Amino acid sequence: EDQVTQSPEALRLQEGESSSLNCSYTVSGLRGLFWYRQDPGKGPEFLFTLYSAGEEKEKERLKATLTKKESFLHITAPKPEDSATYLCAVRDYGQNFVFGPGTRLSVLP
Amino acid sequence: KAGVTQTPRYLIKTRGQQVTLSCSPISGHRSVSWYQQTPGQGLQFLFEYFSETQRNKGNFPGRFSGRQFSNSRSEMNVSTLELGDSALYLCASSFPGQGVHEQYFGPGTRLTVT
């Protein structure tokens, strides 16, 4: 059975303090790993798709990387508007989509 | 391009009643998935439809059902509502075809069961 865990559960950063979020996964056959951002009361917003180990993608202050067992979302010089819950999900060859529990990020001014 | 839309946005129902939620995917998207999100369980997969056929189903009781129409719009139904069904119900659509495609989510329907 596919499993996705994320750490830490919650993270508080000062504005400008860079850090990384972790997503560890166990999947029978990885077709893709996805990162989403979710603001309170809203649907998740798509950020990145990663397909194979070694792949990296960047968008503004965010950079996602992928290894065979985990993915990292690096946040460089975060701003208060980056505060949100960040979700990781995997899709396997059976077309199953499994989400992790998320990391709640708070960036203080 | 318009995003995924869900109606209604908020709903209050009484235990034992049934409810129908609606989802319109992004134009051109033919795959629609439904999720239940609660503070304790996170995002849990309900089912996925593609070309009017259920392609995958999560581990939910038979009270939860869905369907997809020829225009790719989808509905999900929950019968005999229980207090534990209170949640944010999210619909997501994706582009069909080969390869792996990300899902785009709607704003959700907040269901409260009293």
Which two chains have the most extensive interface, and how many residues on each? A-B, 24 and 22 residues
Look at the helices and sheets of chain A and give the structural class: mainly beta
Any idea what the radius of gyration of chain B is?
Answer: 13 Å
Please trace the helix and strand order of chain B, writing H or E for each element: EEEEEEEEEEE
Biggest pleated-sheet summary of chain B: 7 strands, mixed
Structure, explained:
The complex is a heterodimer of chains A (109) and B (114). In chain A, 0% of the residues lie in helices and 61% in strands. Chain A is an all-beta fold and 109 residues long. In chain A, the strands form 2 sheets. In chain A, strands 2, 4, 5, 9, 10 and 11 form a 6-stranded mixed β-sheet that branches. In chain A, strands 1-3-8-7-6 form a 5-stranded antiparallel β-sheet, with no helix packed on it. In chain A, β4 and β5 form a beta hairpin. The mean pLDDT of chain A is 94. Chain B is mainly β and 114 residues long. Helices cover 0% and strands 53% of the residues of chain B. Chain B has strands spanning 5-7, 10-13, 19-24, 31-38, 42-50, 53-57, 64-68, 74-78, 87-94, 104-105, 109-113. In chain B, strands 2, 4, 5, 6, 9, 10 and 11 form a 7-stranded mixed β-sheet that branches. In chain B, strands 1-3-8-7 form a 4-stranded antiparallel β-sheet, with no helix packed on it. The termini of chain B are far apart. Chain A binds chain B through residues 31-32, 34, 36, 41-46, 49, 51, 87, 89, 91, 94-102, and chain B through 4, 33, 35, 42-45, 48, 55-56, 88, 90, 92, 100, 102-108, 110.
